[in-house]
Here is the input.
Amino acid sequence: MNVRLIIQRSWVAVVAALALSSCDMMTESLDDCPTGLYVTFVYDYNIQRADMLKDHVGGLTLYVYDESDRLVASKSMGESQLSRYGSYIHFSEQELAPDHTYRLMAIAQQHETLPLMGAKYRMTGNTAGADWHQFFINLDHDAKTTNIRGTRYEVRGTMGSRGTRSAYNDYYYVSNLEPLDTLWHTLTTIISPADEQPMQLYPSMLTPAKCEYSWQRDGSIRTNGQEKVSLVSGEPTYATVALIRDTKQLNITLRAVNDNPADNMVRDEDYTVEIIDNNSQLDCENNLSNPADTLVYSPYRQWTTTFVGTSQVASESAAHYDLMFNRLLYKNASVTDDQYAILNEADIAKSRNAVLLIRKKDTGEIIFGINLPYILASGRNYQERYYHYQEYLDREYDYRLQFIIRGARVDEIQFFIGTHVHIIPWAIREQHEVLEVRGKK
Here is the structure.
């Protein structure tokens, strides 16, 4: 058994050596040798710090821009390719001229084709010859009168200090018929030297380059990547495009804790849950680029669960809401002003960041509202607190919040993120007070 294994390994080594030497000796034909651009992809910029590309991404398109930032080539991969390790895209020297420099940009989604219903991400500026800065990704959204799930949203309230226009005059609604298709954008590009690809004769065995990330005080990400890729005639170039996930998932649970057990029956149809943000459009660098369109996200699924007790155990129910939303940016350098509750329409206008609102359905009264990036970043555990606020928001993508209602107000917030549970009680008052965070063990 051991002798046979040694012989097989030796034979593979001899074949590889002969193939390498044959490529070195070739002067006219390089058909059997790796040349051109080989691109692999990785999605490890997440809270688990693990490459989840194979399990999460179902469709991907790679765009290549020349020195003038004009789109000169593009190729796509579907779920059948992305579900295997070692997936790559190859451009030959006939497709991309060597001895030139190129910029790579990859856009990926969870599904190979767009879902039939619901809001979709639509790309513009991605035709041949288009300038890199003309590339945009737009999330579908409609004017306030759009009928979503049979509900016609009405104009109510004023925007306060920013004018007398109606609260929903300039708001647009994202369809909640279906979940959003998860979107990934380019984070960085890493170049691998050819001698670091031990199986360069077998491209199906290519391995992504190792990505390194660190956050800066201004919220930007420093990586070991570079903006441009240089191709050399007759030689292979190996690049890895690292992806960042833009679409987030949030599950919200409402429970009531009151002295009278009859007041603890909570139904999902009794409340309206909304996220309000200016994040309808992303540009070529994954920045939010169209702050004029304020979007309202509402749950794409909501339901009620009920627990039937006995004479010794009280019955209760809980309302659940699932929401998805586009990339969340923390726009404040300081969080001092983000710790205030948002309890009226005027407070929405004061927030530069996304706002999470919980209203009574029958009256429209806000029973709780808060700066969404702040409250989500507050759920970091000890190790995750080393992340900058924005880095944490970009790495994490699956949030679960539970709100405890006592009387007519939210009295406590519980975080359920990953395998960790974080409990933060909030003292909510009618007057504007700083919300005090008191940790529990």
Notes: The radius of gyration is 26 Å.
